[in-house]
Design goal:
Helix content: 55-70%
Number of helices: 11
Structural class: mainly alpha
CATH topology: Heme Oxygenase, Chain A
Radius of gyration: 17 Å
Number of domains: 1
Strand content: under 5%
Distance between the termini: 47 Å
Largest sheet: none
Length: 253
């Protein structure tokens, strides 16, 4: 039986045909003075907190309870199930506003979620995704993406994709070379330590804002980025019953 990839299922599939016509640079990180890199640096504190969660320390040390790993996987899938339609909303709004490249990213994300949801629920023999209730952390992420998808300019939907790719890669990279031999979760570390997706997303966002400068709102971008990072942090915290961190409030970041 072929083992499934353990890369984050929420990381965008850059082989998707919708993205084929978009030039995407995955060879180098965004410049240090770029918009996307500045957002990352302003949220590094959340990344450090995430690395120290019981869940990630369990991954690093190889002693995470497999039941908790399975529970996280199901919560991740139910989150994707509830959030997938929001990416269709982003696609439609982007096309209506004359931004086909933004629509392409939303299309790729939507299709990735649909295929992941189908595969995961089939594997776990769950006939109806509604049978799995989202926990508080998953529901907060669902609500955030719904807000961004329906109320904000579509570019902020793409910005909201970066934290997952950037954070998971950073986490895996920080653990690379620091986990013991025979670690049950070595696959999680080795398969997520790939910067290509994060570089592509960051460089695309920077290039897009270079052409559409009037659409850039630093406070809005930081709110979206920091909120998504906090949702990632809380997702890991919730898996091990740790107290969730407060979500950012718009205007306070």
């Amino acid at each position: 039986m072929k083992r499934k990839s353990m890369r984050s299922p929420r990381r965008i599939d850059f082989s998707h045909k919708a993205l084929a016509a978009i030039p995407l640079n995955d060879k180098a990180p965004p410049p240090e003075d770029s918009i996307s890199w500045a957002l990352w640096l302003e949220c590094r504190d959340i990344a450090e907190q995430t690395l120290s969660t019981d869940y990630l320390q369990g991954i690093k040390n190889g002693n995470l309870d497999p039941n908790i790993y399975g529970q996280y996987t199901l919560q991740d899938a139910v989150y994707c199930h509830h959030a997938q339609d929001d990416y269709q909303a982003i696609e439609k709004r982007a096309l209506a506003d004359g931004h086909p490249q933004l629509a392409a990213f939303a299309k790729a994300r939507y299709d990735r979620y649909v295929s992941y949801n189908t595969e995961t629920f089939n594997d776990w023999h769950i006939a109806d995704a509604k049978a799995v209730s989202p926990g508080d952390a998953a529901q907060a992420y669902i609500d955030l993406e719904h807000l961004i998808a329906n109320k904000w300019h579509p570019i902020y939907g793409v910005i909201g994709m970066i934290p997952c790719d950037q954070l998971w890669t950073w986490l895996a990279t920080e653990m690379t070379g620091d986990f013991g031999s025979g670690n049950l979760y070595s696959f999680w570390i080795t398969e997520n330590a790939d910067w290509g997706g994060a570089y592509r997303l960051g460089n695309f966002v920077d290039d897009w804002f270079a052409e559409h400068r009037r659409n850039y709102d630093r406070d809005a971008a930081l709110f979206v980025y920091r909120s998504c990072m906090t949702c990632e942090l809380n997702f890991f915290k919730s898996a091990c019953g740790q107290t969730l961190s407060p979500m950012p409030e718009k205007g306070s970041v």
